[in-house]
User: Fold this.
Amino acid sequence: MRAEYVDERDSTWERDDPRFRILVFKGPDNAVTAIDLVDATLDEAMDSARALSNGDQYFWSLAIVDDDSHGARGVVWLSGMDYNDTPITARQWLLRRQMQSRYLSARTQRGLQPLLPNGLRLLRVFPEWISGLPIWEDFTDGYRLDASSLDISPDLGSALFDWNEEWLTRQVDEPLADPSGWRERGVLLVDLLQEELNGVAEVRPEFLW
Assistant:
């Protein structure tokens, strides 16, 4: 996120009739239901999304529908995204995280295990200022995971440990110049981890933003 000072006079038009679109994803296959809200406020749209998802029991996302000058329709995401799309950019991973976090939080509040609708665990990969594996699992007692709690190969475990150790060679406030391709190696390690945990967990690369 970033903030920029602007001149409020730089806008040349304004509207007060947004069309909101809510997507709700149900079941292990994320079957989607789409509903448009007209003549609604943002607060009403957010309340409607929570109601349609039965209090975050399902994934949901919210967008503004936008028709361009040629009549082509698109959406601008306000919260979440199309969960059936595979994230590519750091921004898309952030939007997916938003959906998953509120869903898993609601599950644990109901006394359920923090599992995705398809039964998979959700593992986060990011470095931290302490030695160990850079793998984390929200809403569990064992927030930071170690090799004994994951069925991964020793070689991959060592590579993940070394990757985190490289992070520790920096000063806390030192910008990451990344001349050695640290981020690229992280992406490769996430891919390998996802491959080894196929059918067990979804792995999210949280070092990209």
